[in-house]
Structure formats: C-alpha cells, structure tokens
C-alpha cells in the first residue's frame, strides 16, 4: 500500500501572474506619489489603474481564486457568529475593568509588602 501525499503544484504562469500583480500595485502606488504636481484625480486614477490591473492578474491565477474562495468562506462564517447585545458587551467590559482594578490593587499591595520586608526587615534600610 502506497502512502503518497497529494500536492497542489502551481504553474510558473501563476507565479508570474502573482509577481506581476504585486508589481502593478507597487507601480500604482509609486505613480500616485510621483505625480505630485498633477491634479488629484489623475493621481487617484493612476493608483486605481494599478490596483485594477493587479486584481485582474491575481484573479486569473490559482492563488487569486483560492484567496477569493477563502474570503467568501470567511464572510459566510462571520455571518454565523452570534454577537453580544449592547447590554451584554457593556457588562463584559465592566467585568474586565473590575478584574483589572482588583489585579492592580493586588499587585500594588504585593509590591508594598515585599518592599517593606526586603528593605526594612531584611536589610534594615529606611526608605
């Protein structure tokens, strides 16, 4: 019996598409900053053009399609989450703040007791 793992192999074309998509994003951002003396709409158009080219290139690659399906699944799972009401969120926040306050007082008290024991009882120093 053979125990071979199955691997997804992406073609070199997909790698080139992803690299070109990254280059397109960088080119769009660079054009936005290089065209400082141009009107704002020209700069924004250059940025959007670079992003659109990147999206098209990424969409046609296997990695891009996998990312899109992952994003759709993530949105679907997020819709299944039961979010707390405003009242519940306020109550949870109050509990957290209360716990933090109690821990702060405990740590301050521990520091004071250890400081007293170490400096005044053990070493005999006065603060």
3D architecture notes:
The protein is built from four helices and no strands. The protein has 127 residues and is mostly helical. The protein has helices at residues 12-34, 40-59, 62-79, 86-122. The radius of gyration is 29 Å and the shape is elongated.
Strand content: under 5%
Oligomer: single chain
Low-confidence stretches: none
- Computed structural class: mainly alpha
Structural features:
single chain; mainly alpha; 2 domains; 4 helices
Characterize this entry briefly.
By secondary structure, this protein is mainly α.
Helix-strand layout with pairing:
Layout: H1 12-34, H2 40-59, H3 62-79, H4 86-122
Helix pairs in contact: 1-2, 2-3
């Amino acid at each position: 019996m053979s125990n071979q793992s199955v691997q997804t192999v992406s073609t070199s074309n997909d790698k080139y598409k992803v690299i070109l998509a990254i280059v397109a994003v960088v080119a769009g951002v660079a054009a936005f900053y290089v065209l400082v003396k141009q009107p704002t709409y020209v700069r924004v158009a250059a940025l959007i053009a670079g992003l659109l080219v990147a999206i098209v290139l990424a969409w046609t690659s296997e990695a891009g399609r996998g990312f899109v399906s992952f994003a759709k699944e993530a949105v679907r799972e997020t819709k299944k989450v039961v979010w707390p009401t405003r009242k519940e969120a306020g109550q949870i926040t109050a509990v957290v703040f209360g716990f933090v306050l109690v821990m702060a007082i405990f740590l301050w008290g521990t520091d004071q007791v250890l400081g007293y024991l170490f400096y005044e009882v053990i070493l005999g120093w006065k603060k």
